[in-house]
């Protein structure tokens, strides 16, 4: 098995992050530092990360967090801001977020130590839907709704078609749900800015069929077995 995949399966971090650890020289196999991506791990090999033994016997855990605004979606923050890890400090396992929510964005966030699932859910090829409740300034016209549905230009590239449903509309603001499957940086905010309606409030309310339901903001709960199975299925892992 490739080293970065092995590390992810052992819950060290997401596969992309594990690749960075390898390139930084933080991984050893049988006492030798390995910096080449794709290095094979064989049965019986002793693998360490930052001098800590990595084991594939680690128990995977999966949580659903209703992230409040004012927290960054990282394990650590160089600016000293609160992170989602502060909310989940009582969880004993070494977990990390699946994807990101901006500092000023609230809502649904999956937290786990399953690096392979994290990689699968964030890979563009699986097109996992993410639904947001958005409040923007001003009354959004039907023409601009159609622009979001067709795709708009942000960062030099047209977005994939979005699903849009208007909930409330007035001169002052418009509330709507927006469903996308891409995961580009600050994508929903940039899409709304592109049509001339800046976001004033943004909450992610669903990933595929997984919803916040009645989970209070700032609280978390374990995912059910059915929810875990669903995420594996939409991530394409059951086919492997």
The first-level CATH class of the largest domain is given as: Alpha Beta
**What composes the largest sheet?**
9 strands, mixed
- Given the helix and strand composition, which structural class is it? alpha+beta
CATH homologous superfamily heading of the largest domain: Pseudouridine synthase I, catalytic domain, N-terminal subdomain
CATH topology of the largest domain: Alpha-Beta Plaits
Q: Spans with pLDDT under 50 lasting ≥5 residues? A: none
Helix content: 10-25%
Q: What is the residue-mean pLDDT, rounded to a whole number? A: 92
Helices and strands, in order, run as: HHEEEEEHEEHEHEEEEHEEEH
Radius of gyration: 20 Å
What CATH architecture of the largest domain do you see? 2-Layer Sandwich
Binned strand content: 25-35%
Task: State the helix count.
Answer: 7
Number of domains: 3
Oligomer: single chain
